[in-house]
Predict the 3D structure of the following.
Amino acid sequence: MSDSTFTTALKTAATYIDVAANAHGEEKAFLAIQALKRMSADSHHLVEVGPGGGSAVAYLASHLSMTQPPLSDVHLTLVEVPGVMSASLGQAMDAFNRVGTCRLLTGFAQDISALLTEPVHVISASALLHEVYSYGGGYAGLHSMIRTVPTVLKPGGMFAYRDVYAVKAGSLHDRTQQTYTSRSWIRFLRMFLPQYLDEGTHPYHSAADLAVLRQDSRIVKPEDLSERTSVVATAPVGIFREVQRHYITLRDHIWRSGVLGFRPYLEGPLSGDWIDARYGHKRVHYVLTDSDWLPASQKTMLLALSEQYMDHHTVDGDIFDECTDIALNAFLARAEQGDGECADVWRSWVTREGRETYAYMTLDALLAAVAVHSTEAAQEQRTVLIPVRLADVMRRDRAYYNRYLRRALPNPLRDAKQLVLFSNVPVTDSESLSEGMHCLQQWCSKGSLARVYAAINSGG
């Protein structure tokens, strides 16, 4: 990764690490906590790769301080790329040092075997594999990373992993159809899709992966789409997953920039003012910004539908989303023309995230790839990384985003995170292997199960 196109300047900016990448601490730490509870050691060594703004570290510190009986002697090692540090991470480390010990090592995930001097009990990571895939050599870098993990885990240790949920399909290359009717989404397709397919690191290169877009029953190139006519698109489901996920991250990025004339609270207590949490319906709290390029009528209408709340405003989330999509269409039009602040915000997002592949594996493919390539690790005692309990594999839906997507798209894909707790099982441990294969049967195809069985029994 050290010689890749990893966009350090933007990925390590304080506004990104301290704010945008510093949320969901409980979710990021959840599997690590479960793993520690299952360890029988007197002293626990936990490694978190890519701590970002430290939300998981802070949650771990808080949880450990309240655990009864307390987990004894927890040592936390953080591994972060060079140049990444934030105020919030420093505060989280201070909090953890009051309940255990915490240190920060600088280096790349692929080099973790050189950074750690001895095997550890638990490794925890969020979005690691898709970062390695996008910036560390595609599938080759990804498989190399998987082969490294068992070498730094104790036999029986655990790898707690969290990433973007892909899709419920046999493969991300399965072709499907999507319809786009919203102007902002169609304009986004026109701007995003050509550059992603041309410049992004992704697996959609074969003739069968071609994206075919139609307007008024005519095939249209992505760059020639008109936002005034609905689009019917046929492509691999993985491409639609990328379009949808990138639109959401762009929307959040634009919100945080304040360029639309308003900035919602996306973190902290005010971001979770739920009207109905189960269905993703909430109140949005926002402040006005100095940006004034939008027609005054749009900001006036938003204010008319809002209520004053202390030093800011609040509005129904559905109304806010609808107003945002109208403003986003205007933003994208100006960005496409290279117009000042809007173009700058668009370019900063493209540089940081616009070419990144988020969901490149279904759960079936992820479990099989980790199992198969972990057996190829260079170590004397062969092990395999597999979940051994059904509860070790889970999905957490994003109710708010899914509510928005159902309103914006005729047939949206589910927005969620997938969490997997892999155990580093020695291939001589027949009982644990049996439990692991039983677990994989619930998620993997017969072809994937055969690959895992062959890898375990191949002798290396």
About this structure: The longest strand covers residues 153-164. Confidence is low (pLDDT under 50) at residues 1-10, 14-21. The two ends are 27 Å apart (CA to CA). The longest helix spans residues 237-257.
